[in-house]
């Protein structure tokens, strides 16, 4: 058990080191920070001077170790464009992204689970078939097209929901939330919906597959034989048994959603980390690009490691089956 | 699953297998048939684009600014030959869609092909040699899979485009996109092939040929590939749809195809700027085409997965 | 700052700011901007959009009035004591937002700060040598030589409070390279009509009214909510659905729709900014090979083959003003005689190309950005298409400014776009010395094509020290004529600028410098 956890942690650390290396390569070789930071009127002398002060003339390996050392303490340097501490900028915008992802996940569970159950127990009915069919569309529609469509219909034509931004936020110390104000709640509806579309489909399909498997199992057959009502069998016994994989998948998908939110954030001008990243890409603000990459990978890796380890605790058979 | 097929049919008889079960399943799935027809139509028209379209939208000299923003033909002010209207450069929307679809499909196919070749090759290597080679390759795969694909693709594409020399820019951007997308998906194939190779390596004929001193590599490849064909084929179809989506997303975000060589995503990005000015056709038609294309591919992939999965049959 | 310090600071700040909900009040204007300001420190980044916005918080010694004439602001009067010394008398009774008195020491500290060696804005005050405090409300500014444009420069030099700078260790401009964040990057203390309430970069910056402003307030706003919305379509949608009240740089294609909306008013005029094309004038093209663009006939052909009237009608929606000269009419040095746009004549262009020996055209790199100028992506494509039709083979390279500027500045572009508004001095001299002059020393910084016209250089240098206004302007006009005859840069148009504002607001002045001035607005 301990060996497994250590192995899993070592793996996570290795992945993080590699990602940091990637981030460093981008940081070091993309664009010229000197061009970014100085006014266009700067002379060659000023440029050389700045290059020296930034340590860009030092050997590669030394630069990398310095980078890793600083990154480990959360110091990703200063944004070229905003001249602010990069970690500060990202953490300021983390709540926006996280709330969006949370609400999207919530929507996907609320909608996806019942749909999955229905498509599983009424396999042949027309509505189950329709749902199954729609789910393919849901997985195929590009999220930016969906976003543009939602804005056009619900903000511009109907005027029900705001087209951009987070609305008013309430500052809870280190966390700023949009969920406590009316305009904030209205603002999150469209982006969360557009982000959750893909997720709804995933949840629905997973629940359906799991349900089908469980319904075939002996204990359900036994329950049926005992005369327990179908509704109770489906929702109390069968569903409960397939929730574990749903929870696992949802947890693992959160990392992916945080990254994928950048498309939604761009369409809805949602002031989260993803929008910051996309703007950094446009402005070649390399410290932000590098830091965002590391942070998203960290979230991803930590979530995956936790899920794996929890699984190992719950189900010892998996410990050996990792390979 | 693997043993079943190798026992049932000799690899050269794969065609028979296709003809029987799969074809039957295909014919009985209306949605699969429909998707296949639509997909075929989209692909054929895209590749016949130079013949079908009234204009070459990539030829700068063919664009006539006088024809800018004409509405579709059925609306007032619509003009032949611009069936679906024109964009702000006087580019025929229909031609733009056909050529754009062609680019999207080429990038999709190319990235799947590249990742297949790389994935199968590395998978065989990892499985056959094992040891540190295996370790290194699989760790690289782990690292890639632990960064979300959109992020990798955006970074690779925006970074690599900076280093393109001007002479290669036109084909270079597409190549960069192919690599950016393929970088991620080869891992899947490599894992499947590696697992199968490890099974195969322990078989007697391999052991025997080792003892004799002649490597059994070629023979092994012949045995491994057919056994992994099914999962790889399903994954490749779904990845093809994913590749098209990612290309469109990158182009929409402005790190993909440039506006003078628009793919579907680029057309949507540019058209989005004219959403409120009344020229809705610039964004609407490319969006519809993109959705149709991806839905058709995914529908086929979905059916294929169910049809080839013996558990569900 | 390491992680634990950060968390600590965040926690402390949190207690103070806990549950501070923000809400819109009656006299709030919600401003949807195309981009965010980059810093709260006007001296930390050479960015005119930032400096313009910060003018709501900070002020200079002098300012432009409604007619773009210079009028007193923090200085009430000035005199030229000697050709190189100017004496400014400062306004009495002005207080900074934190209550400190405004004195000559503040001016001295600000001038020293902006002209510091590490200041990116050093170039905005080129003639400054030193300053001496005469008494509490008088200061002498010493220049390196006779320089007629000092007042123009000073309109954009914002004045800080010395005591505040010293107390917060911010006397020097934020030095990005040292890896420190400056206090002034996040905090402000100016004398202007509005006070900073809060700022979240790339999300929202909120200003509230300064009740103790020295000038009589013409506005009645109590609050400005500034939010960047970089996607033009989203910006328009937000305006149409009433989520913002004011938008600067509304897309020209959306103006009819915005004007048709009941609750909106569209303000438009042509900008001072002249958009032009520059040519690579080195011996070789970027991709190698002899550079045909050193032949005047080739440049003439390239100019003649571009149908600016068509571009104006279709791409710019009739909102731009086609230009024959490199500066806009209201810029001193402009001459109507030079402002004759080249006639469109593709046949003649082909003949000229053939004469020059390039009848089959040639390949070259055409570098554009996608957001620097109004509809740039579109007009670049249109120009490339027109050039293709006379047989040239432009290779269009469109990308974000941050990626394109290094290419242009390092001579990796054969043809490139450049817009020049002559800000902040509002004089042709700015174009001459920065763009058209040979690249020597601090001159010709934007001479990205690498040309050299000694005669033009001489005129520019003479104009720099000529104190007689008429003689100086004539020199500048003469220099512009050389630029026109030689097609050093090819003028395209003065670009349109368009704002849209909710009808609830009035008196928003729109000057051709494209700088929203909320201190005139009433609701």
Q: What share of the residues of chain A lie within helices? A: over 70%
Gap from first CA to last CA of chain B = 12 Å
pLDDT averaged residue by residue of chain B: 80
Shape of chain A: globular
Poorly predicted sequence stretches spanning 5 or more consecutive residues of chain B? 1-11
Strand content of chain B: under 5%
List the helices and strands of chain A in order. HHHHHHHEEHHHHHH
Q: State the order of secondary-structure elements of chain B, H for helix, E for strand.
A: HHHHHHHHHHHH
Tally of DSSP helical segments of chain A: 13
The oligomeric state of the chains shown is heterotrimer
Count of DSSP strands of chain B: 0
Strand percentage of chain A lies at under 5%
Report what the structure shows.
The complex is a heterotrimer of chains A (323), B (313) and C (523). Chain A has helices spanning 2-29, 33-37, 44-53, 60-72, 86-121, 126-140, 143-157, 182-215, 218-225, 230-268, 273-282, 286-314, 317-320; strands spanning 170-172, 175-177. Chain A has 323 residues and is an all-alpha fold. Chain A has a two-stranded antiparallel sheet with strand order 1-2. In chain A, a hairpin with a 2-residue loop joins strand 1 (170-172) and strand 2 (175-177). In chain A, helix 5 (86-121) packs across helix 8, helix 6 crosses helix 8 (182-215) and helix 7 (143-157) packs across helix 8. Chain A is globular. Chain B is mainly alpha-helical and 313 residues long. Chain B is built from twelve helices and no strands. In chain B, helix 3 (30-47) packs across helix 12 (281-308), helix 6 (131-145) crosses helix 8 and helix 7 (149-162) crosses helix 8 (169-201). Chain B starts with a helix and ends in a 5-residue tail after the last helix. The model of chain B is unreliable at 1-11 (pLDDT under 50). Chain C is α+β, with helices and mostly antiparallel strands and 523 residues long. In chain C, 29% of the residues lie in helices and 22% in strands. Chain C has helices spanning 3-17, 48-54, 104-114, 150-154, 162-167, 183-186, 232-240, 255-260, 296-304, 308-314, 346-355, 376-389, 401-409, 428-436, 454-465, 469-485, and strands at residues 28-33, 62-64, 70-72, 75-82, 85-90, 128-135, 138-143, 194-200, 204-209, 223-228, 246-247, 264-279, 321-322, 363-369, 393-399, 415-420, 489-502. In chain C, strand 4 and strand 5 form a beta hairpin. Chain C is globular, with a radius of gyration of 24 Å. Chains in contact: A-B, A-C, B-C. The interface between A and B is large, with 41 and 38 residues.
